[in-house]
Design brief:
26% of the residues lie in helices and 37% in strands. It is built from three helices and six strands, in the order E-H-H-E-H-E-E-E-E. The chain has a six-stranded mixed sheet with strand order 2-1-3-4-5-6.
Length: 91
């Protein structure tokens, strides 16, 4: 099984992105979660693989695993941060 990669999409003027990055500080430091600028080549390539087009609602994440690449919405509260990828929820 391939390792699941999670990328947080970031943009300059994105307050929710900052909140999510702060909440996932430990995971980012450990390399479990990567932060990608939405305009970076890598982010654009992954968005294309996910078939996401250019309609990204922040905060958002890209998840890459054996199922391919999916664009996910991030739901963040004080206690928990979840990514919703279609019907799948990733904590």
């Amino acid at each position: 099984m391939n390792e699941r990669k999670i990328y947080i999409l970031d943009e300059e003027e994105c307050t929710p992105c900052e909140e999510v990055k702060k909440a996932l500080e430990k995971e980012i430091a450990e390399g479990k979660v990567q932060v990608l600028d939405i305009t970076s080549d890598e982010a654009l390539e992954l968005l294309e693989k996910a078939g996401a087009g250019d309609q990204v609602e922040f905060p958002a994440a890209l998840v890459e695993d054996e199922q391919g690449v999916r664009l996910c919405q991030i739901y963040h509260s004080q206690d928990i941060t979840l990514s919703k990828c279609g019907d799948e929820i990733i904590a």
